[in-house]
Amino acid sequence: MSGPLGPSLAPYVRSSRTLSKWLKPVATWYANLSGYRKVGLVYDDLLVEERPDVQRALSRLTPREAYDRAYRFKRASHASVLHKDLPQSEWTKPEEDVRYLKPHVLEVVKEDQERHVWDTINVARK
């Protein structure tokens, strides 16, 4: 899969128990190293918002999800201004780091592909 979410080998890794067992600790280590959890963000907060498909997906968030997203950004920018991470009790835990925007983005991409198919259909007279 490619697009706004980028290429992903995750389905292949999840299908293999051995690969999943070996790569899960590396993935957890990398997510902790990247530092977005230390300022209270979740992974989908890092998606590039300037893409039109991501903008449309953001407009489909529920009011609660939009509020939570804005709050996380405000808290993260405040921590950035202070040059400090949040207290460890306020870090995003791995089980809380869920992909809330991914279903919306995939839906928008699917709609765009369907629209492209319908817009480029060849109608032939019998």
Automatic annotation (TrEMBL):
<dbReference type="GO" id="GO:0045275">
    <property type="term" value="C:respiratory chain complex III"/>
</dbReference>
<dbReference type="InterPro" id="IPR036544">
    <property type="entry name" value="QCR7_sf"/>
</dbReference>
<keyword id="KW-0496">Mitochondrion</keyword>
<keyword id="KW-0472">Membrane</keyword>
<dbReference type="GO" id="GO:0006122">
    <property type="term" value="P:mitochondrial electron transport, ubiquinol to cytochrome c"/>
</dbReference>
<comment type="similarity">
    <text>Belongs to the UQCRB/QCR7 family.</text>
</comment>
<keyword id="KW-0679">Respiratory chain</keyword>
<comment type="function">
    <text>Component of the ubiquinol-cytochrome c oxidoreductase, a multisubunit transmembrane complex that is part of the mitochondrial electron transport chain which drives oxidative phosphorylation.</text>
</comment>
<keyword id="KW-0249">Electron transport</keyword>
<protein>
    <recommendedName>
        <fullName>Cytochrome b-c1 complex subunit 7</fullName>
    </recommendedName>
</protein>
<dbReference type="Pfam" id="PF02271">
    <property type="entry name" value="UCR_14kD"/>
</dbReference>
<keyword id="KW-0813">Transport</keyword>
<dbReference type="InterPro" id="IPR003197">
    <property type="entry name" value="QCR7"/>
</dbReference>
<dbReference type="GO" id="GO:0005743">
    <property type="term" value="C:mitochondrial inner membrane"/>
</dbReference>
<keyword id="KW-0999">Mitochondrion inner membrane</keyword>
